[in-house]
Amino acid sequence: MIDELEALAASAEQRLMAATDLDGVAALDAELLGKKSQLSAAKKKLGTLEPEERKAAGRAVNEIRQAIEAGISAARQRLSAAARQIQYDAERLDLSERLGEIRRGSLHLNTQARDRLEDVFVSMGYTIAEGPEVETAWYNFEALNIPEWHPARGSFDTIFVDLGEPEEVMLRSHTSPVQIRTMENTEPPIYIVAPGRTFRTDTADATHLPAFNQIEGLVVDRGITLGDLAGTIEEFVHAFFGGEVKTRLRPSYFPFTEPSAEFDISRPDGSWLELGGCGVVHPNVLANCGIDPEEWQGFAFGFGIDRLAVMRYELDDIRELVNNDVRFLRQF
Ligand code: FA5
Question: In the beta sheet, which residues pair with residue 20?
Fold first, then answer.
């Protein structure tokens, strides 16, 4: 019996070494160690042996079971390492691969538009200001002459943040809070532009995004009139687009400017695209920031950078800016 078991051990070792996949090892495991295995049969037969012989045969059965178990675990290890290697090879990415010529990356259209806007305004004597994207009701609304009861609050489709008092903290719905932060900290005369991200519950469509970019402009100086505002917008649009694009101001309403206007720019097909709002800074807003409205006057404007990019790069749909399709982005 011991001879038979030794022969079994030798053949088991060879067969395990020859196994080429994990399924094969599982089959050998069942065959060599399962209930119907030669080893189980030998174990059953132990009871029929003489005590001396039983002892030696019992030891041999145990030793051979251990050897086969060790062989199975070694085969499993060997083959799972091989299986992993095959998977790695199949999933490996060749990062050195390239198709055609090497392409240089480029700045995103919004970044290009913002940089150009900043250049145009800096060349007109403005400096760049910025403010936080998460604002309090004071900066986003109240200091801008939009008290809690004011219906204009609804028109900003504000995204509130669950921090502190309800409706007290929000993602800024426009860049106008930067006007307040600037006037609180700076003595006039003030000439700033403030580009930045803004957020509203707007559903994305061809002309709207829920997260978009605005650029705010604020001038506070002596003797500022609506004429200065109109001239500034005209000059900026010419510098940004060149001579072909026309502008128009339409009377409008914002609580923080009086009078207020919306301004549109002409599309190549002759239609108009609304670009932003503007107006003469409301005396209450100056007073809220500790600036004497009798002495100082100002104008402000705020327009959509994404919309400017749409115009400048002649896109059909504002969503192209955020789809991140490299085939589209590579064109610019
Ligand atoms: C404002 O946000 C005012 N703060 C503008 C202003 C500033 C007026 C200073 C007076 C003085 P309005 O909600 O109209 O106004 O937005 C201004 C511009 O932001 C719009 O004309 C448009 O160009 C852009 N805009 C608004 N909502 C979206 C949107 N969901 N997606 C893309 N652009 C948008």
Answer: none
Q: Please answer whether residues 215 and 278 qualify as being in contact, where contact means their C-beta atoms are separated by less than 8 angstroms.
A: no
DSSP 264-307: EEE-TTS-EEEEEEEEEEPHHHHHHTT--TTT-EEEEEEEEHHH
pTM over 0.90: no
Cα-to-centroid distance, 113 and ligand 1 (Å) = 16
User: Does the beta carbon of 236 lie inside 6 Å of ligand 1?
Assistant: no
Residue type, 118: E
- Give which of 257, 266, 245, 247 is closest to 216, Cα–Cα: 257
Counting beta carbons within 10 angstroms of the beta carbon of residue 145, is it exposed (0 to 12), middle (13 to 18) or buried (19 or more)? buried
Atom of ligand 1 nearest to the CA of 174: 2
| Cα(42)–Cα(45) distance, integer angstroms | 5
| Ligand 1 centroid distance, CA of 302 (Å) | 6
Atom of ligand 1 nearest to the CA of 208: 31
CA angle 215, 154, 177 (to 5 degrees): 30
Supply the residue whose CA is at minimum distance from atom 24 of ligand 1.
304
Order of all β-strands in the sheet with 272-281: 127-128, 190-199, 211-221, 297-304, 272-281, 257-266, 247-254
CA–centroid distance, residue 309 to ligand 1 (Å): 14
CA of 214 to the centre of ligand 1 (A): 7
**pLDDT string in tens for the chain (332-residue length):** 788 888 888 888 899 999 898 889 999 989 998 888 888 888 888 888 888 888 888 888 888 989 899 999 999 999 999 888 988 999 888 777 666 777 778 899 999 999 999 999 999 999 999 999 999 999 999 999 999 989 888 888 999 998 878 779 999 999 999 999 999 999 999 999 999 999 999 999 999 999 999 999 999 999 999 999 999 999 988 888 887 888 899 999 999 999 999 999 888 888 998 999 999 999 999 999 999 999 999 999 999 999 999 988 889 999 999 998 888 888 88
